[in-house]
Design goal:
five-stranded mixed sheet; alpha+beta; elongated
Length: 264
Amino acid sequence: MFVCEIMVFSYHEVITEENVEDKSIYLLLLIIFTIILMVCLVILVRSYKKLTESNRLLQEGLENLGRLNDKLRMDRHDYLNHLQIIYGLMELGEYDEMNSYLKKVYKELLKTGKAIKTSKPAINALLAAKLAECDSKGIELLIEVKSDLKDIRIEDWELCKVLSNLVDNAVRALDESDKEEKIISINITETKEKYIFDVEDNGPMIPEELRNQIFKKGVTTKKTEGHGMGLAIVSKIVNENNGEVKLESNTEKTVFSVEFKKGE
């Protein structure tokens, strides 16, 4: 601002003189300086917004890691109790009851195990958090991990944002579904050429007329009022990382597939 005041003062001094050429030069310089200042302000505002968003996502990641750690500690405690119960049933000769109990424990153990298979702690924490969230909503979340994601180029926090929005979108779809059995499947895999993330739900079919518009801001499939930002965010991040997002939807399932080429 000090520099700007100096230039305005200098221009004021010049316009009191008769030299029109000098006045034009100073006016041009003032305009150029003003434009540069405005551009710098825009860049600073955008940088601040990105930094704020990064900090928010980092905080979410740390909270997810904390929840995952707490869950693993509680699971360890619970499994010790489970072993005692199983041993007691075995001692009593209640083998049918023991078998039924083991199946339930194994199912819970399998859920946690599948959620912590990647080499990315933030992704593992996110999957564990979504498992707990879906369980509280009566939704069965199935996770299949066939890649450790070790060499994927996209930043962890951006990948978390993509997966989180896709799962949240599936949860919202199932909230409006009248199906008794609500299921979301996450499949993380890779080929020689790319990494693939599939998020599938058995909720309502997305109308065909919306499929080409669904990744735009403000477009939503919700019957109630919704902001329609989640899938737009997914599309933006995927495009910025040279990826591709595909949609398949019918009366049986809706699948969002995100692909990132290796080496890019």
